[in-house]
From TrEMBL:
This is D-lyxose ketol-isomerase. It comes from Maritalea myrionectae. It holds the Pfam family Lyx_isomer. The lineage of its organism: Bacteria, Pseudomonadati, Pseudomonadota, Alphaproteobacteria, Hyphomicrobiales. Belongs to the D-lyxose ketol-isomerase family. Transmembrane segments: none annotated. Its EC number is 5.3.1.15.
Length: 228
């Protein structure tokens, strides 16, 4: 993806988020220079990879297959492993109309996916085999707003604003917006996007960036290169 396009997406996302009465935290608006100046104070944010995340899954077709994310907070795997402390994470996502977030599952993370506003959120679901692999012939059961909901393999569940689904490790899912763009909330256990996204197809989690202009704000995938 071109950096200029990423900058545009950031501005468009911020406008949409604000339209629903939500404002991102102050560090979201730091320039790269401000982030560098605050590295020591922001070490917890950097280590937890909180911040902007825009991906085309390495395919170069963001409008067709991509996702906007902003990680608001993220816990510590060590706390999760010992069973106490900061074991949770929270994100905002924007799934554009007909923009696919491709089929995947998680090994550790359980998550509530919530339609916070906009159009209809569609989630396609499959179950796992006994080893946790994608199973084309298996369904399962999820919680929709706390109510058990069986699903058939490949069934597409639809969620209006205010509705949600709880996905457990092994629930294979893909999602997109139907009839317009959707602002999505994600509340989950500790999140590790580098290792805990298992895709059905061999695709990348992060975009490859062409630096045609300076970044407006850093992506989480920029932290290592820009901040050390």
């Amino acid at each position: 993806m071109k950096r200029s396009r990423i900058n545009e997406i950031m501005a468009e996302a911020d406008e949409m988020i604000r339209s629903f009465g939500f404002v991102l935290p102050p560090f979201a608006y730091w320039t790269p220079e401000e982030f560098k100046a605050n590295v020591e104070k922001a070490r917890a944010l950097i280590d937890a990879r909180c911040g902007w995340d825009i991906t085309d899954y390495g395919a170069g077709r963001f409008d067709e297959m991509g996702l906007f994310l902003f990680t608001l907070r993220n816990g510590r795997l060590a706390d999760l492993q010992r069973g106490g402390g900061m074991c949770y994470a929270e994100k905002l996502l924007i799934s554009r109309q007909d923009q696919l977030s491709p089929m995947h599952t998680h090994v550790i993370k359980a998550e509530d996916i919530i339609n916070r506003g906009g159009a209809t959120m569609v989630i396609e679901l499959f179950g796992s085999d006994d080893e946790g692999n994608f199973a084309e012939d298996r369904g399962g059961v999820v919680l929709c707003d706390g109510i058990e909901r069986p699903f058939e393999p490949g069934e597409k569940l639809k969620f209006a604003p205010g509705e949600s689904v709880t996905l457990m490790p092994g629930d294979w899912h893909a999602f997109w917006g139907e009839g317009g763009d959707v602002l999505i909330g994600e509340v989950s256990t500790v999140n590790d996007d580098e290792t805990d996204n298992i895709f059905r197809e061999p695709i990348g989690r992060f975009a490859e960036i062409e630096e045609d202009e300076a970044p407006m704000h850093l992506l989480v995938s920029d932290y290592k290169g820009y901040l050390g």
